[in-house]
Amino acid sequence: MDNLQNPYQAPQAELTINSAAQPLLASRWTRLGAALIDGLIMSLATVPVAYFSGAFAAAQQGIEPSLGQQLLSLVVGVAVFLLVNGHFLKNFGQTLGKRLLKIAIVNLDGQVPELGGLLLKRYLVWWLLAYIPLIGALLVMVDYLFIFRGDRRCLHDLLAGTRVVQLPR
Predict the structure, then answer these.
(1) 8 Å CB contact between 32 and 151
(2) Staple 86 to which of 82, 127, 159, 163, CB 3.0 to 4.6 Å?
(3) Contact, 161 vs 113, CB < 8 A?
(4) Closest alpha carbon to 68 in 51, 81, 55, 52
(5) In sequence order, which residues have a C-beta less than 8 Å from that of residue 27 and are 6 or more positions away?
(6) If DSSP codes are grouped into helix, strand and coil, which group holds residue 165?
(7) How far is it, in rounded angstroms, from Cα 2 to Cα 12?
(8) Which residues touch 53 (CB under 8 Å, ≥6 apart)?
């Protein structure tokens, strides 16, 4: 029976996939690996700061770090992040971990996002949210759990209008 005889049949169209227009999304495991590499690199710089500022000793005694220690950690963390990743983010949409694992952050048009918006929406907002007592850690966890959506975009991706794609090998 063709469309003229069945008015309820769904319209038919030839489906073609243009793989050049849509790069493959980075796998969840590759994104996790890149985040672990980035976290290790950041730890190499920020743990000594925590040690020398006294935050490490206070934490060992169960004392919450002072606001000054927390602000110092944030400022040092942001500075180190920019020193390590700023060039790669601006030019390639990659942190060092993403670069090593050959994945990149792109906007929804497939282009490297503008650095200012990327830093503000994809990173700084979430770093600041993490400092909110009680709910900060929950918000960050919910952000990361969004990776299990079909499009693999976390909340930070949705806010920044980005996605993470696999680069050609």
Answers:
(1) no
(2) 82
(3) yes
(4) 55
(5) 166
(6) strand
(7) 11
(8) 69, 72, 73
- What is the maximum span of the chain, computed from C-alpha positions, in angstroms? 80
> Whole-structure pTM over 0.85, yes or no?
no
**Integer Cα distance of 28 and 144 in angstroms:** 10
DSSP one-letter string for 17-74: --TTTSPPBPPHHHHHHHHHHHHHHHHHHHHHHHHHHTHHHHHHTTPPPPHHHHHHHH
The residue among 160, 134, 141, 42 whose CA lies nearest residue 96 is 42
pLDDT, tens digit, 9 for 90 and up, residues 72-121: 888 888 999 999 999 999 999 999 999 999 999 999 999 999 999 999 99
Going by C-alpha positions, the residue among 115, 116, 92 that lies closest to residue 164 is 92
Tell me the pLDDT tens digit for each residue of 11-55.
777 755 555 567 899 999 999 999 999 999 999 988 888 888 887
Token representation of residue 8: 């309820």
Q: What is the pLDDT of residues 51-67, one digit of tens each?
A: 888 878 888 898 887 78
Q: Which residue has the tokens 């243009």?
A: 18
CB proximity list for 139: less than 8 A, separation 6 or greater: 126, 129, 130, 132
